[in-house]
Amino acid sequence: MKPRYDCLKCPGYCCSYGRIVVTERDIARLARYFDIPVEKARHRFAYRYRTKDVDEWILRHRKDHVFRSVCRFLDPETRRCTVYEARPAVCREYPDGIRCGYFEFLMFEREHQDDPDLVIDAR
Fold it and tell me: Cα separation of 56 and 38, whole Å?
């Protein structure tokens, strides 16, 4: 089925998720992309997130003018992924269906507020 969303009309909402988990395979892919050692890629692009129940590597963020913070690989002007070919598996799979809730919400608000460029931080 054809997706019912268009990422080109979105400001990168999924890139603003606080915990974008990366696997060892994702880190290795980023290391190859940047032609750096895996260990250097892991510490440059991710950090370890641990709680009593969780132990995972998360992509680092940077401050953003649309959302509070976003994945370090989101271009602030184009709102597109700068490592698209090497992006993590979770990004490749998102939104895991033909619909994206944020996109539908955003399109609804843009239409009803008659503002095709409206951006809403739905958090």
Answer: 16
Asked if 74 and 81 count as a contact pair (C-beta separation under 8 A), the reply is yes
pLDDT, tens digit, 9 for 90 and up, residues 52-63 = 999 999 999 999
Q: Is the residue at 66 inside a domain?
A: yes
- The structural domain count of the chain equals 1
Residue numbers of the domain that contains 31: 7-112
63 falls within a domain: yes
Residue 52 to residue 105: CA distance in whole angstroms: 34
Q: Are 83 and 27 in contact (CB under 8 A)?
A: no
Give 82's DSSP letter.
T
Closest C-alpha to 83, from 24, 25, 31, 17: 31
Determine the pLDDT at residue 40: 98
Residue 121 is assigned to a structural domain of this protein: no
Q: pTM for this one? A: 0.83
